[in-house]
Write a structure and sequence with these properties.
There is one protein chain. This protein is an alpha+beta fold. It has a single domain, classed as q2cbj1_9rhob like domain (Jelly Rolls, Sandwich). It is about 20% helix and about 30% strand. The protein contains two helices and eleven strands. A six-stranded antiparallel sheet has the order 1-9-6-11-4-3. Strands 2-5-10-7-8 form a five-stranded antiparallel sheet, with no helix packed on it. The protein is globular. The chain starts with 11 loop residues before the first strand and ends in a 5-residue tail after the last strand.
């Protein structure tokens, strides 16, 4: 018997080296930025969403994390498409900070116009039980429930991940996802990003 996984959706998990010390610096810089900005309303319900300029900012902790995130994007791309030719393209990126206080969450959404999306976790309050702050991916395939095998891994219409500080996920930007409400007293802090490729020298 031969098994082919057709139309699969890749989700990469990365762990940042020396994340503990980096996260301390990130939290300090994030709190300083938050004190000067009212933030934006996007998929976030309650909480705080920064401007989309994370990769343009000069805070040392931001710049250090940006390098790690883009290294991950390149590794994910090369894993799936080793002949793509990353040297011939520029990566256009946007990134923002999410601070979810108690009760805050992110509604289901995707990120049209990009290739990769991702999220790094700076601070994740411990949750002994329950789904507080859980990241849930929703199956992009239509009419999958009629299979009758929705309780199996291959046909489940949702997949949950309980994030930990210091790791980040990279996934295709078409993949619908959302975040369960933060039920803890401590804030939940993450940094999300989008990436698309533009061939060097092109006008688009």
């Amino acid at each position: 018997m031969k098994l082919d996984h057709l139309f699969s959706t890749p989700v990469f998990t990365f762990h940042v080296k020396d994340a503990d010390s980096l996260n301390v610096a990130l939290i300090n810089d994030i709190q300083a930025l938050r004190a000067t900005s009212q933030g934006l309303q996007r998929s976030n319900q309650k909480g705080w969403h920064s401007e989309n300029d994370f990769f343009k900012r000069e805070e040392p902790s931001f710049k250090k994390l940006a390098v790690a995130l883009m290294t991950g994007v390149k590794a994910a791309t090369q894993k799936l498409a080793p002949d793509y030719g990353l040297d011939n393209v520029d990566m256009l990126v946007e990134g923002w900070i999410n601070v979810n206080s108690t009760g805050a969450f992110n509604v289901p959404h995707d990120h049209p116009g990009y290739v990769w999306s991702g999220c790094y976790y700076v601070q994740v309050p411990p949750t002994p039980i329950g789904s507080s702050g859980v990241l849930e991916f929703l199956d992009p395939r239509t009419n999958i429930a009629v299979s009758g095998l929705s309780n199996t891994a291959a046909f489940s219409n949702k997949v949950q991940r309980k994030p930990k500080a210091g790791l980040f996920y990279i996934f295709p930007s078409y993949l619908m996802h959302w975040v369960y409400p933060n039920q803890e007293q401590d804030e939940r802090i993450s940094i999300a990003f989008n990436v698309r490729f533009v061939r060097k020298g092109s006008q688009g």
